[in-house]
Amino acid sequence: MAIVLGPNQYGKAENRLVTVSRNGSVHTIKDLTVSTSLRGDLADTHLTGDNAKVLATDTQKNTVYAFAKEAPVGEIEDFALRLGRHFVSSQEAISGARILIDEHSWDRIDANDHSFVQGSNEKRTTAVTIEGSQAWVVSGVRDLVVLKSTGSEFHGYPKDPYTTLKETNDRILATSVTARWRYAGTEVDWAKSFTEIRSIMLKTFADKHSLSLQQTLYAMGEAVLNARSEVAEVRLSMPNKHHFLVDLSAFGLENDNEVFYAADRPYGLIEGSILRDDAPDPGLAWSTLPAF
Question: Which parts of the sequence bind urate (predicted)?
Fold first, then answer.
């Protein structure tokens, strides 16, 4: 039996970067969390401690900040592509890079040019993977919390001795959407694409009469693929944020779908992928990401 080194990577995780773009008195904020990971001919550092091919993680961190100064950050996909391609082209031992970026939202306070209020916990995300001259982009959104107070049912499921859940023809449907979509290429208007994909998903969630969260998940992904030709695949992870009807009968009160208990756990977790049957090979797009 032999023991060998398997796949490996290293980098600097969760670099916090805030930039202020000053156009006269009007300022714009970019608030990012950037993680870098590099892979390649790195066996020596693991097996012998020889660091001759190891670009220090501190250097990776410094590169993030220097790149933010040398040119505008712009869209997070473009910034991630710049960083990943730089690491691969500048380091002989490095054959691949993965750059993860979360963008945190800030909203301008009224008409003030330089004051902001932090938005919701929702985050715009991207994961850029570089291998040699190839690049794959998976963008998305996380912590997008949505709720509809009607237009959702759940019934017709199997019953066994352990089933206590009652069927319903009218329930609250709420979830925190994590969506990732794989682009077919890198020549994309990232800002427009993100805005329109997010809008499509929200509209589909609101408009689709739901017989299950699974049905809603598929409809959201399908709608994106029907409308956005640049997207090859959509992956969605949607926990069911349960709202249980409170029994008020002990108080002589009838609860007509008005008073609920919002439970944070345990929760149903619905996940799935929707893709074109002629979608291009994903390559390494998903290789360093969770399945959903």
Answer: 57-58, 154, 171, 214, 240
